Amino acid sequence: MAQTNQDKPQPASAELPPAMAEVQSQSMDDLLKEMNRMPLFMTSLDETDGEGGENMALEALKAMAYEGTRAEIAENFRQQGNECARAKQWSDAKEFYDKAIAALKGPQCNPDPDAEGPDVIPVELDADEEAKKEMVIGEAVYVNRALCNLEKKNYRSCIQDCAATLRINTSNIKAFYRSGTACLALDKLQEAAWACNRGLSLDPGNAPLQTLKTKIDARRKYIESVEKARRAREEKTASERATLKLALKSRNILTRSTDKAPDLEDAAVKLENSMDPSSALSFPVILLYPMHSQSDFIKAFADKERLDQHLDYIFPLPWDEQHEYTVNGVEAYMETCAGGLIKVGKKMSLGKVLGSGKPEVVDGLVTINVVPKDKAAGWIEEFKKRKGKTA
């Protein structure tokens, strides 16, 4: 029986080159790992040789970034920065611009004077030409780094980069626009307006600068309106304070402030018409029940009102189990500025009591002690002893 082609022995394939033979023996994962070490195929940074050593291919590529003159090195970093900026990768772009500026400030890389051989071509740098190149690159790098700082809200750094740009070229429109924008963000409106106006003097039709000017003007008007309102409030408050002081003085009401004023929230001595010293006064009043260590607070006690009018709705007291506190069964006392006591007539207006010139309104609060009539004498005696001990 004749042999078919399938039964015939297949000729041996040609041997693979050594490098390819090595690849053929690797798994797919190993192959991808190996490719990732090659700069051309890198998807993640691998700075080792896979065994903790140095990745020579990557190091050689990185070293190339620092080969050449200052201008060449800086230009290389500038281009990389521009690529990141176009992708709005502001942090990466700024890092490349930082390297470009560092290269411009570094030593000039002249050809090795000791290099020999037929392939060595002697090169002499034109200092003036190199200086011009460096200025052009420096201007572009500083103004682009200013953009990165502006986008990252590093406003002061942005202004500094714009200043560096303008030291190189006093007519750089982008520098005026970006510094003006940064100054506006910091509410440095005078500086923002100067930068904007300077840019418009060079390019009157520049749309971004015209928009910036509108924003600066609007912000200035807003701040001026806020400041005007603040001054008006302060003037009104000062006028109200002076009117209240006049009202108290004209009624012979004594006041005193201490460094331990209580928190009364919005309760305060007030005129019914804050600008009319003759209008009705009201006072925050605290009623103390010293025999039981209790109290009641009256937020606004009008100067024409009497104590019994308030006691009428406050009594009976929930804690008064003996029913000692009734309108007719209590007496009221206020401490005088001399340290004594004055009896408060329950049917006497508060304004008349305070106008006697004996009690004080301390820290904007009127204090009235309320005690049962049958215990008043004992409480007064105890008060005098306590004051004597204090003295």
From TrEMBL:
<feature type="region of interest" description="Disordered">
    <location>
        <begin position="1"/>
        <end position="27"/>
    </location>
</feature>
<dbReference type="GO" id="GO:0051879">
    <property type="term" value="F:Hsp90 protein binding"/>
</dbReference>
<keyword id="KW-0802">TPR repeat</keyword>
<dbReference type="GO" id="GO:0006457">
    <property type="term" value="P:protein folding"/>
</dbReference>
<comment type="similarity">
    <text>Belongs to the TTC4 family.</text>
</comment>
<dbReference type="GO" id="GO:0005829">
    <property type="term" value="C:cytosol"/>
</dbReference>
<dbReference type="GO" id="GO:0030544">
    <property type="term" value="F:Hsp70 protein binding"/>
</dbReference>
<dbReference type="GO" id="GO:0005634">
    <property type="term" value="C:nucleus"/>
</dbReference>
<dbReference type="InterPro" id="IPR019734">
    <property type="entry name" value="TPR_rpt"/>
</dbReference>
<keyword id="KW-0677">Repeat</keyword>
<protein>
    <submittedName>
        <fullName>Tetratricopeptide repeat protein 4</fullName>
    </submittedName>
</protein>
<dbReference type="InterPro" id="IPR011990">
    <property type="entry name" value="TPR-like_helical_dom_sf"/>
</dbReference>
<dbReference type="InterPro" id="IPR044059">
    <property type="entry name" value="Csn1/TTC4_wheel"/>
</dbReference>
<feature type="domain" description="Cns1/TTC4 wheel">
    <location>
        <begin position="275"/>
        <end position="383"/>
    </location>
</feature>
<dbReference type="Pfam" id="PF18972">
    <property type="entry name" value="Wheel"/>
</dbReference>
